[in-house]
Design a protein that fits this description.
Chain A: Its EC number is 2.7.14.1. Chain A: It comes from Thermoflavimicrobium dichotomicum. The complex is a heterodimer. Chain A is built from 13 helices and ten strands. By secondary structure, chain A is α+β, with helices and mostly antiparallel strands. Chain A has a domain of 93 residues. The chains are: A alpha+beta, B mainly alpha.
Chain lengths: 360, 173
C-alpha cells in the first residue's frame, strides 16, 4: 500500500474539514443510546434475538438508503472483520472497543464520510454516534436526533414517561446522551495547571478521560470531556453546560499560550523544533513519545512558530501512528518493538512527503 | 448473548485459544470461564460495573425496616428476563426494559445518586407522544362510560364502548 493511499483510508472525510475552534477542540461527538421495545437488552439476548436487531436495522437502512445521510453508507458486521480491522475502526473512533471485542452479533452502519456510525448490539441495541470537527456539539446533537427520528419511524423504542429512554445501564437512562469533545491542552500542561483544572471539571459533573475513552491514558495532552448526567436535564441543557465549560477551558488554554509566548518564546520555539527534529529523524519511537512530540509541534503550528508542517498533517499522524493502523499499513502483525520502528519510519516518510509536496 | 455453557448468564468473556496453530474462539460467562480454569480472569481490574455494584451493595441502612427491605430486593426477580436485583448489582446492567418496572421502588435512590434527578425531561419519541394522547383520551372515555351506565343511557354507553375498543386497538398497533 502506498503512503498516499493509506492516508486516504486513515483519515475520515469529516476530519478534513476545519471546524470552529479547531486549534484547541479537535472534534465534537454526540452518542445516544436506544433500545427496541419488547426485546431483552444485548447482555441477555439470545443469538436469534441479537440477529433480529441486526436484521431490523439493516432492513430500515435498505428501505431508506437514498436518504442523504445514508447514501453510500456501509453496513458492516463485526463477525466479518479481522481483529486488526476492528482495531482500526476503534482507533478512528468509529466504533467502541466494546463493540469490537465483546459483541459477537455486533454491527455498524457507517456513513460514507464516517461522521455517522450507528452501532448495533453494543451495550444497548442501538447507539447513534455523530462526529463533527471542532466545537460543534449542537450540530452533532441535531444530526443524532435526526437519525433517531428516522429510526423511530421503523421501530418502537423502549421508553417510559418517567424514566425516559430505557437503557441497559442506568447511568445512560433518560436522554441516553453522551456528548463529548476532544481538546488539546498543551500550554496548560506546560504551566502545570492541568492538575488544578481537571478536578474542577469533574466537580461540575463532567468527566475527563484520555482519548480512547474510559481508563485510557491521556496521550499528547489530548483530553476527552463529556457529560455524566443523562436524566433530569434536556439534551439541549446537557449540551449547553458542556459547551459552556469547554469555552472556559479554551479561554484558559489560549491565555496560557499567550503567557508562554510572552514570557518564554525562545524556549517554546526550541521545544517545538526539537520535537520536530525527533519526529523527522528518529529511528525508533514509542507511541507515548510520538504523541507528546506531535503535541509540541501541533502547538508550534497553532502559534505560527513552525512553517514546515500543517495542522492537518499533525492530526493525521496522531491517528496513523496507533498500533492498529501501523499493523494495517505494514500488512502484518507487529510486536511492540517492531511497531516503534515502523512508527518512526511512517512519521519520517509523512514529514518528508510534506516537505516535497506541501498540502497547504 | 447468553453463555453457551450454562445458558443462564451473559457471556462477558471472549477468548481465543491457539494450540499448535489451531485457533478456537469461545464466548463464556465469568463463572463458566473460571470453572474452565484456562482463562485468566481480571479479578482486580477496575470496571465501571464494579464501582456501580459497590455502591448498590453498600447502601447504608438506617433502620431495621430498611435492612429488611434490602434483603427483599435482593431476591426480587424480573418476570420478563429473570434477572434478580443481586445479578443487576453484579453486572451493573439491567436485562430488559421491564427490569425498570420490577425494580422501580429501589431505583429512585440509585438514580438520585447517579443523576441527582429521577424524572426524564428530554426528548420524547413521536410515537409515544401520540400514544400518550390516546391513553389520556381513554381515561376520559372510561369515566364517561361509567357515568352513562349509571344514568342507564345504554345506547350512548354502547357508542362510547365502541370508541374505547377502537382506541385500544389503535394503542395495541
Amino acid at each position: 500500500m502506498s503512503l498516499q493511499h493509506f492516508i486516504k483510508n486513515a483519515i475520515s472525510e469529516w476530519m478534513r474539514v476545519k471546524g470552529p475552534q479547531s486549534d484547541i477542540v479537535f472534534s465534537s461527538r454526540v452518542r445516544i443510546a436506544r433500545n427496541l421495545a419488547g426485546l431483552p437488552f444485548p447482555t441477555l439476548s439470545t443469538s436469534s434475538q441479537a440477529e433480529e436487531v441486526v436484521r431490523m436495522v439493516y432492513e430500515a437502512w435498505q428501505k431508506d438508503s437514498d436518504l442523504p445521510f445514508l447514501k453510500k453508507a456501509a453496513f458492516i458486521r463485526m463477525s466479518d472483520l479481522t481483529p486488526l480491522e476492528k482495531r482500526v475502526l476503534v482507533e478512528k473512533h468509529l466504533i467502541s472497543p466494546q463493540l469490537a471485542e465483546e459483541s459477537p452479533h455486533g454491527a455498524v452502519l457507517l456513513s460514507q464520510d464516517e461522521a455517522i456510525s450507528i452501532m448495533i448490539n453494543e451495550e444497548d441495541h442501538i447507539r447513534i454516534q455523530c462526529l463533527f470537527p471542532g466545537l460543534q456539539l449542537e450540530k452533532a446533537w441535531e444530526m443524532a436526533s435526526h437519525l433517531d427520528d428516522w429510526l423511530e419511524k421503523h421501530f418502537t423504542f423502549a421508553f417510559d414517561d418517567q424514566c425516559g429512554y430505557l437503557t441497559s445501564c442506568p447511568t445512560n437512562l433518560g436522554t441516553g446522551i453522551r456528548a463529548s469533545v476532544m481538546v488539546h491542552l498543551p500550554a496548560l500542561a506546560m504551566i502545570q495547571q492541568l492538575p488544578r483544572l481537571l478536578p474542577v471539571i469533574t466537580q461540575v459533573g463532567l468527566a475527563v478521560r484520555g482519548i480512547y475513552g474510559e481508563g485510557s491514558e491521556a496521550l499528547g495532552q489530548l483530553y476527552q470531556i463529556s457529560n455524566q448526567v443523562t436524566l433530569g436535564q434536556s439534551e439541549e441543557e446537557i449540551i449547553d453546560k458542556l459547551q459552556g465549560v469547554v469555552r472556559q477551558i479554551i479561554e484558559h488554554e489560549l491565555d496560557a499560550r499567550r503567557r508562554i509566548l510572552h514570557q518564554s518564546a525562545l524556549e517554546l520555539e526550541d521545544r517545538v523544533y526539537r520535537s520536530y527534529g525527533i519526529l523527522a529523524h528518529s529511528r525508533v519511537i514509542d507511541s507515548k513519545e510520538a504523541m507528546q512530540r506531535l503535541s509540541d509541534v501541533r502547538l508550534g503550528v497553532d502559534l505560527n512558530l513552525i512553517k514546515e508542517v500543517s495542522a492537518s498533517v499533525m492530526n493525521e499522524l496522531m491517528v496513523m501512528i496507533q498500533p492498529g493502523f501501523l499493523q494495517q499499513y505494514a500488512g502484518q502483525r507487529l510486536d511492540p518493538e517492531e511497531r516503534d520502528v515502523r512508527r518512526a519510519k511512517l512519521i519520517r516518510e509523512r514529514l518528508l512527503m510534506e516537505n516535497n509536496n506541501p498540502s497547504e | 448473548m447468553l453463555c453457551p455453557e450454562c445458558g443462564k448468564r451473559p457471556a462477558t468473556i471472549h477468548y481465543t485459544k491457539i494450540i499448535n496453530g489451531n485457533k478456537t474462539e469461545q464466548y463464556l460467562c465469568e463463572v463458566c470461564a473460571h470453572e474452565k480454569g484456562d482463562v485468566p480472569t481480571f479479578e482486580n481490574g477496575f470496571s465501571f460495573q464494579k464501582l456501580l455494584s459497590s455502591f448498590l451493595n453498600f447502601e447504608p441502612s438506617f433502620s431495621e425496616h430498611e435492612s429488611r427491605a434490602t434483603v427483599k430486593h435482593q431476591t426480587l426477580r424480573c418476570p420478563t428476563c429473570g434477572m434478580t436485583y443481586n445479578q443487576f448489582g453484579k453486572f451493573g446492567r439491567f436485562g430488559c426494559s421491564d427490569c425498570y418496572y420490577t425494580f422501580r421502588t429501589h431505583l429512585e435512590p440509585m438514580l438520585r445518586r447517579i443523576h441527582g434527578h429521577t424524572t426524564h425531561r428530554g426528548k420524547i419519541p413521536e410515537r409515544t407522544k401520540g400514544a400518550l394522547k390516546i391513553r389520556r383520551k381513554l381515561e376520559l372515555l372510561k369515566e364517561e362510560l361509567a357515568r352513562k351506565v349509571q344514568a342507564e343511557e345504554f345506547e350512548e354507553a354502547a357508542k362510547i364502548r365502541d370508541q374505547i375498543r377502537a382506541l385500544q386497538e389503535q394503542l395495541e398497533q
